[in-house]
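Retro notes (design track)

What went well: tokenization of the new backbones is finally stable.
What didn't: we kept losing track of which sequence belonged to which structure.
Fix going forward: every design gets posted as structure first, then sequence, in one message. First example under the new rule, 744 residues:
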């Protein structure tokens, strides 16, 4: 039976579903009742009939009155003393018989008792909900506390049985998060500007890796960039992924954002590999060397083949470590034990997931946890606990892999510090995790079901995008005090001097697409933006990590301003920074100061590819244009962009005045012109300048073409120049000189 559309709309509004949005072309889209209903179901909300919908509406309209405390309170450090809102099911005149003890506990376990007498309480508000009177009071803290996380427990007692269900006592708790009002900026950025290089780590060729760029390569790239005066090296997310094509190789579609991909391990830098005779013999064998060379010199990455090379070595290294270090309790074994203890239940859950996956795949041919026997789909079930105990060694193996990754990651960060980089490693945080991964398995109640995250159409993605992973549920996340969100931010800031929050619009609203539908059938859902931004600021200050908000796309009023008010750097791309509607490129002095400026990203054409229109050619070949009749206009616009670029470079004195402007006179991007374009950005006011390694080496190949899976070689293309040659490239030396000239 169809539910009244008015009721669906009312419930949708209460649940944060935004009824309409405007796309980049200025077209307004309205969410249909079917879309709203599908999204509500994805939130786990009962919508099977009108009575169920009315109950859900009543429940939400009764908040905050129908619960003692909000699940979390996120406040500014400057908004103290803190006041905790408390709602009780009594009329205001019953307050004199009430007494309340509020206990605030800090992260070190120290507590503070704050008693409150009802006789001294003044109602902040009162209401009657369904005939039940409620009063709201504010429990005031008496201390000025530092930034951090606090557990607040409130115990209420009344002389009469007037509290919930006729009781004389009730108790509740909330998480209090006190945050700074701005993210961290190092002194070097407070007073100056910095440039650096960003690379797709997996794509790096080197004489030592096994066919995928690894953490040793990262350290060498850091040294090369630092040698030219660069202040950071940016990398793609290191998140754990399946390493199986076509869907399991994107670093932006991870199994887990909490842990790392083992393919980034450098086997040569693992002490247990060096100690283990079996490992040494394996890696010295003619067969292994031949297979490594095949992958090392291949034009494209074969993730499964590289995994097949590394896994046997890692397995033997673990066996050696377990028997020679862990069981005997050597110093190295003790270090591993400390790591496991520090990582806690998150690491245990992740390792259990992979142990289960390995067994279920071998025994039952399962590829996803949704295919496992039902008793193993719940990570907290007795069956999973029994499996973990019976397979302790295998679970420890997957913990060991993460320990090795942590060590090598730290070594790369230490290299940046030793080289004097003011920022060091610049991490990238993907917007979500895939539905059949460990993150979702471990926290199923936090993720929507039957929903994918994506984006409406834009200039480079004319059909919109579906990213193929489920969104986090804003209300459930809040109910848990943002514990999962905090852990995700904290773990990804570790070893990072800067971090990019991919799709920062998702802090405000996220585009939900009912599974099986086109992006056109999606709708935006609101998030608790200020609370999440404040948590990011807190972790930023604690970890000394600069925060970059990838704020591309269509933002609503005040969104960018809020990000900037917390000193999150805006993400500005040359391709999009224009004076509309005439399309002239924005002058360097008009770029915002609190920003990172760049030419392109992994999802867009390289500078060389942009110049020749390779992205337009690809989309035409793959029928990705919804309106093919506009292709000629796209090509004409691109030729116009080339002319406009040359002209602004002439105006700045970055190329000679007789430099050719006509597209037919300059069919390919020259190194001179590429350097001039980056020098143009180096002149900008932006605190950071990000130079893509693809442009340093003059690549024409786009790393990822959104809207495709296996129609295009996404995530498998290697750098055309080996790592060992990058430091000596004249283009990089000339870029460094230009950056110094313009104050970077």
């Amino acid at each position: 039976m169809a539910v009244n559309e008015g009721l669906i709309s009312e419930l949708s509004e209460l649940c944060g579903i935004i009824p309409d949005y405007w796309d980049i072309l200025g077209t307004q889209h309205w969410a249909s009742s079917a879309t709203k209903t599908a999204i509500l179901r994805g939130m786990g909300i009962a919508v099977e009939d009108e009575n169920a919908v009315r109950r859900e509406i009543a429940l939400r309209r009764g908040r905050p009155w129908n619960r003692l405390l909000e699940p979390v309170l996120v406040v500014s450090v400057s908004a103290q003393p803190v006041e905790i809102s408390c709602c009780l099911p009594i009329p205001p005149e019953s307050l004199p018989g009430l007494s309340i003890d509020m206990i605030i506990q800090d992260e070190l376990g120290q507590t503070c008792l704050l008693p409150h007498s009802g006789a001294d309480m003044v109602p902040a508000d009162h209401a009657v909900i369904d005939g039940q009177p409620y009063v709201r009071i504010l429990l005031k803290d008496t201390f000025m506390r530092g930034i951090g996380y606090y557990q607040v427990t409130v115990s209420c007692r009344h002389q009469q049985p007037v509290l919930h269900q006729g009781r004389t006592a009730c108790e509740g708790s909330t998480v209090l998060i006190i945050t700074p009002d701005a993210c961290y900026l190092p002194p070097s950025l407070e007073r100056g500007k910095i440039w650096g290089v960003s690379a797709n780590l997996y794509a790096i060729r080197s004489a030592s890796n096994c066919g995928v760029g690894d953490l040793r390569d990262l350290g060498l790239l850091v040294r090369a960039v630092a040698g030219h005066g660069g202040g950071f090296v940016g990398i793609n997310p290191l998140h754990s992924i399946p390493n199986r094509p076509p869907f399991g190789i994107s670093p932006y579609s991870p199994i887990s954002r909490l842990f790392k991909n083992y393919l980034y391990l450098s086997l040569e830098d693992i002490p247990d590999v060096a100690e283990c005779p079996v490992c040494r013999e394996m890696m010295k064998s003619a067969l292994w060397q031949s297979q490594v060379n095949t992958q090392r010199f291949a034009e494209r990455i074969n993730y499964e083949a590289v995994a097949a090379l590394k896994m046997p070595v890692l397995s033997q290294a673990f066996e050696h470590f377990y028997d020679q270090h862990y069981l005997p309790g050597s110093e190295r074994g003790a270090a591993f034990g400390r790591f496991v203890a520090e990582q806690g239940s998150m690491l245990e859950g992740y390792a259990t997931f992979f142990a289960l996956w390995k067994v279920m795949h071998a025994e039952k041919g399962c590829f996803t946890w949704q295919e496992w026997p039902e008793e193993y789909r719940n990570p907290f079930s007795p069956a999973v606990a029994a499996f973990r105990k019976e397979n302790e060694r295998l679970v420890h193996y997957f913990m060991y892999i993460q320990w090795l990754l942590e060590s090598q990651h730290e070594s790369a960060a230490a290299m940046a510090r030793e080289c004097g980089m003011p920022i060091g490693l610049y991490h990238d945080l993907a917007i979500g995790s895939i539905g059949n991964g460990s993150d979702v398995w471990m926290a199923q109640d936090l993720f929507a079901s039957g929903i994918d995250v994506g984006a409406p159409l834009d200039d480079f993605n004319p059909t919109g995008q579906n990213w193929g992973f489920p969104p986090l549920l804003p209300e459930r996340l809040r109910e848990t005090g943002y514990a999962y969100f905090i852990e995700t931010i904290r773990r990804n800031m570790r070893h990072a001097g800067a971090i990019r929050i991919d799709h920062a619009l998702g802090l405000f609203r996220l585009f939900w697409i009912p599974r099986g539908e086109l992006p056109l059938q999606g709708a935006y859902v609101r998030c608790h933006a200020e609370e999440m931004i404040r948590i990011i600021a807190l972790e930023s200050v604690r970890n000394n990590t600069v925060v970059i908000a990838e704020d591309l796309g269509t933002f609503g009023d005040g969104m960018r301003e809020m990000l900037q008010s917390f000193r999150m750097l805006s993400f500005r791309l040359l391709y999009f920074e224009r004076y509309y509607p005439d399309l002239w490129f924005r002058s360097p002095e008009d770029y915002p100061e609190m920003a990172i400026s760049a030419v392109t990203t992994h999802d867009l054409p390289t500078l060389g590819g942009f110049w020749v229109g390779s992205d337009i050619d690809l989309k035409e070949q793959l029928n990705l244009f919804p309106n093919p009749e506009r292709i000629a206009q796209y090509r004409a616009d691109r030729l116009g962009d080339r002319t406009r670029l040359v002209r602004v470079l002439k105006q700045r004195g970055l190329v000679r005045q007789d430099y050719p402007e006509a597209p037919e006179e300059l069919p390919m991007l020259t190194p001179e012109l590429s350097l001039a374009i980056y020098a143009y950005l180096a002149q900008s006011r932006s605190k950071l300048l990000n130079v893509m390694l693809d442009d340093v080496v003059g690549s024409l190949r786009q790393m990822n073409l959104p809207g495709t899976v296996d129609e295009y070689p996404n995530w498998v293309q290697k750098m055309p120049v080996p790592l060992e040659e990058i430091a000596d490239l004249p283009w990089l030396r000339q870029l460094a000189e230009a950056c110094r000239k313009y104050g970077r």
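Added context from the reviewer: The chain has a mean pLDDT of 95.
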